[in-house]
Amino acid sequence: MGKVLIIGAGGVATVAAHKVAQHPEVFDEIMIASRTKAKCDAIVKAIGNPSIQTAKVDADNVEELVELLNGYKPDMVMNLALPYQDLTIMEACLQTGCNYLDTANYEPKDVAHFEYSWQWAYKKRFEEAGLTAILGCGFDPGVSGVYTAYAAKHYFDEIHYLDIVDCNAGNHHKAFATNFNPEINIREITQNGRYYENGQWVETKPMEIHKDLTYPNIGPRDSYLLFHEELESLVKNFPTIKRARFWMTFGQEYLTHLRVIQNIGMARIDEVDYNGVKIVPLQFLKAVLPNPQDLGENYEGETSIGCRIRGVKDGKELTYYVYNNCSHHAAYLETGMQGVSYTTGVPAMIGAMMFLKGIWKKPGVWNVEEFDPDPFMEELNKDGLPWHEVFNGDLEL
Amino acid sequence: MGKVLIIGAGGVATVAAHKVAQHPEVFDEIMIASRTKAKCDAIVKAIGNPSIQTAKVDADNVEELVELLNGYKPDMVMNLALPYQDLTIMEACLQTGCNYLDTANYEPKDVAHFEYSWQWAYKKRFEEAGLTAILGCGFDPGVSGVYTAYAAKHYFDEIHYLDIVDCNAGNHHKAFATNFNPEINIREITQNGRYYENGQWVETKPMEIHKDLTYPNIGPRDSYLLFHEELESLVKNFPTIKRARFWMTFGQEYLTHLRVIQNIGMARIDEVDYNGVKIVPLQFLKAVLPNPQDLGENYEGETSIGCRIRGVKDGKELTYYVYNNCSHHAAYLETGMQGVSYTTGVPAMIGAMMFLKGIWKKPGVWNVEEFDPDPFMEELNKDGLPWHEVFNGDLEL
């Protein structure tokens, strides 16, 4: 049906590449490109399919990207690199007539600030070029938006309250490690919390609001209110929403480590002069911490991510909870990566599949909830992320 | 009486320089040298005595040191640089006929391992050259040895139990900072504990043994058993000692920060490759943490360091506690530095004074307890570190 170029060679890209390779009926040709070609070659070796091509590209560099896209001519670029590179890759797609998908919204390197406005600004250009850009097609953002769209389509006349709940109850047996890029992870968590209520955004201090939430097959876990980027598009696309929040679990040890990392200055994202070399402390810390891609082997337990929704149908109040539980070990056995990479990489593959099948294809820049959720939901069940529904249960929220 | 060269321009060197400058009747000429001459010039400016000379020297480089010593011809070098440089400076002293004093024993850069054997190996060469080397002449080591020698000389026939107790009850109002070079501080604390009992050394895990000890004018503080270098020389020089231990106070927050620093790999002393630059994580952390020299201004509270001794005199059991309390703020007002630098820098000056007065002058390499403690004890009272005695109190140990 079409050829894809995966940019990135981290945990998410590794999972997505495995999954794309499992669907030759959709993906005719595959190329993986990143700053370090050897990492791409290692993924190809792990998959065991030598027909997958690899290339070296600096995703910060539009010219290099354009050259690669003009040479390979993919139907779609799956951007699984860092969110810093969203705009350069979108730009290269526009210049070369290529469709686009990513899993996390753009943020500039020098301020921790996650929002869609930068990428939405490309809407008109993608429209005029007849190209599709699908934003935030991982799990959260991604499946969380598809879940919401599915709930709105099938079960609610109006969604009033939306809580996205993200629990990682896994144990990687390291004193401290982040589950994805530590730089992005720490930037995300140390910023102020924010949620949407009655038409406006309410700001909180970092980790200020938390409560015990009970996760299926896991039990109660202390869950912290964070800002998460899909809130921004979901309240826009579902204007009946009165309140939208995002919750993530953290253990006390994780939070203690995080607090100390900030106290000692290692979460700083400005440059420090070290013997004449300019170094960003958080980037140096990343080089010292365990690589999230190496956590898989001994990772036990599972993740549980879902949407807890309250609204009305035919004038009656209704609650709905849709979620997936993903085993770190099962993810590792299939792809060599842990569950956090797996839950992000699988939906990225499905998004690309939806596009190549012509189901999620419309010129412009879109968030996932703006497409038909049904075929995506069907594919989740087939591709390792089955979902479950609870009707009229206690949402605890 | 003589001229001194101070090597180093940190907090301890700053205090020692102030104190040396207060005694022109002993110190005829003063020079301060360090890797960064501007830091030496800043100390001279703070003291306000333009007759003090300054120079640039790399204390790792014996040739540079020899050239400096041959040019300036000091009677004594006060080594107040890092303990990594003890051996190069001792070597340069031997080559140029210069006497030597330091405040902390040598350790190699690549292993955290504090012991005197490296420096004691120079004993014969100093003897043959007719030169005096005084090792470990800060507070602990330093005053702790003088206290012990004083107790042995005046109050005990036999010392049986020696506990050196070091409390910092100050508050610098920073989330986390070390009171002296963070690299040395963290190396010291993260190594195994060790104490002497019945003729042998007993090893403990880091921070394994701790108890509440009550410090004068402060109250009870959780105190942790560490190895500290003066134990090594004191049990050798006072062979009646059955048990010798060293205790230091740490708050829970400090220990939490330390634990996390280790967990995240920032206490590592091996080199890490960071974008092609070799960087020792602990040294990078030092560059990000507050500079101990900048803590003085808002430092409240005091330190309390002393020796708790049990032994016999005329066949009767006796306990003896001798200690000094030092106010961070008073130290800052006098020298611009906090109490931890002050309590180390003042004894260094007194040691040099003892040598230049001919009281502590004998060819060889010596620890402070091998000299007459009385004139040193007298000088402590005059120079800002008055001491107090408690007889037959409860040592809690």
TrEMBL record, chains A, B:
* Residues of the Saccharopine dehydrogenase-like C-terminal domain: 138-385
One Pfam family named in its UniProt record: Sacchrp_dh_NADP
Residue ranges of every copy of the Saccharopine dehydrogenase NADP binding domain listed in the record: 4-134
* SUPFAM superfamilies hit by this protein: NAD(P)-binding Rossmann-fold domains
Q: What is this protein called?
A: Saccharopine dehydrogenase
Q: Which organism is it from?
A: Paraprevotella xylaniphila YIT 11841
